[in-house]
Amino acid sequence: MEKDIFTIKENALSYGRGYVYSLQYHLVWCTKYRKQVLKNGIDAECKRMLYELAKEYKFKILAMEVMPDHIHLLLDCKPQFFISDMIKIMKGNLARQLFLSHPELKQELWGGHLWNPSYCAVTVSDRSRDQVIAYIEGQKEKEKRK
């Protein structure tokens, strides 16, 4: 018997006033020049800041990994959020706070920019969510094997 591709697990849905949704995005953005500056404790600081932003802006982080030169996030967010605005908020806040707490980053990343201006945003279905989580969580292991 064929699986019903339109069946969504009830716990995968979120409810708002007058709407039901399930919106997950796999987001990736890189440091300027792919400089490997998100290490030696800065990676943990980025994670902490991103969790604070998630709480403030009311989105959920389902998976996250901060690599030396890029960040992977799997987010669950409300339909009112524009992904471009969320990326701008996250990249802007992280850069501002990291430049304040680590002024040495400005010397390594001349021009005053921590992030490459581009990003990748991919929608994630209920069926592929577990694969994306495993992929994100396996990034550090993959890096160690290089």
Walkthrough of the structure:
The protein is an alpha+beta fold and 146 residues long. It has one domain (10-145): Transposase IS200-like (Alpha-Beta Plaits, 2-Layer Sandwich), CATH 3.30.70.1290. Helix content is 38%, strand content 22%. It is built from 5 helices and 6 strands, in the order βββαββααβαα. It has helices at residues 42-57, 83-101, 104-108, 129-137, 139-145; strands at residues 14-16, 19-21, 24-30, 60-66, 70-76, 120-124. The strands form 2 sheets. A 4-stranded antiparallel β-sheet has the order 4-5-3-6, sandwiched between helices. It has a two-stranded antiparallel sheet with strand order 1-2. Strand 1 (14-16) and strand 2 form a beta hairpin. The longest helix has 19 residues, at 83-101. The chain is globular. Residues 1-8 have low confidence and may be disordered.
What fold name goes in the CATH topology slot?
Alpha-Beta Plaits
* Low-confidence segments: 1-8
What string, H for helix and E for strand, traces the elements in order? EEEHEEHHEHH
Largest sheet features: 4 strands, antiparallel
- Tally the beta strands: 6
Could you state the CATH homologous superfamily?
Transposase IS200-like
Q: What CATH architecture label applies?
A: 2-Layer Sandwich
Summed up, the domain count is 1
Side-by-side strand order of the widest sheet: 4-5-3-6
Report the span from N to C terminus: 43 Å
Give the number of helices.
5
Radius of gyration: 17 Å
Question: Regarding quaternary structure, how should these chains be classified?
Answer: single chain
CATH class: Alpha Beta
Globular, elongated, flat, extended or rod-shaped: what is the shape? Answer: globular
Structural class: alpha+beta
